[in-house]
Amino acid sequence: MLVRIPPTAESTPAGARLHQNGYFIPVEADEGRVVSVWTPLEGVMHGSTVVDALTVLPGTHRGPLLQHDLSAHEQGGLVSNPPQGLNSLSLAVEPGDVVFLHPRLLHGSQPNRNSSERTELLAHYASARAAFVERPHVNKEYWKQNAQLVRGVSSNL
Questions:
Q1: pLDDT of residue 104
Q2: Which of 74, 79, 82, 135 is deepest in the core (most CB within 10 A)?
Q3: What biological-process GO terms show up in the record (predicted)?
Q4: Is residue 152 part of a domain?
């Protein structure tokens, strides 16, 4: 999926606030079954300086999927109660770098403070052995229609 993030004013809390991709993908988030791949294509540089475009909370992939506040999405907030006492890590990535994300890893992006849009490529991969799970906030039919079998034998998806 190609994602375009427009420039935002200093006062706008845009960007993707802390969230877990597994909350939005209707597939079991067990070890080795799902991975997200994020590749910035442009807009992560501000002049000659790399902008911290992605923040992760190391270790959160070992915990459960957290409750997300979908009503706060437009204000930039998603995770209702992020774990306390964890250090965040800002990743300074350049166009073309590839970041692999565990479905339970808590992460988010900074607002785009550049004068041009930030363009990213986002893909989610799941094992053919992964099973759909019911998540009332996720359109499971969308995922079924848009998923493609890359390798293996389709058994659950």
A1: 92
A2: 79
A3: fatty acid alpha-oxidation
A4: no
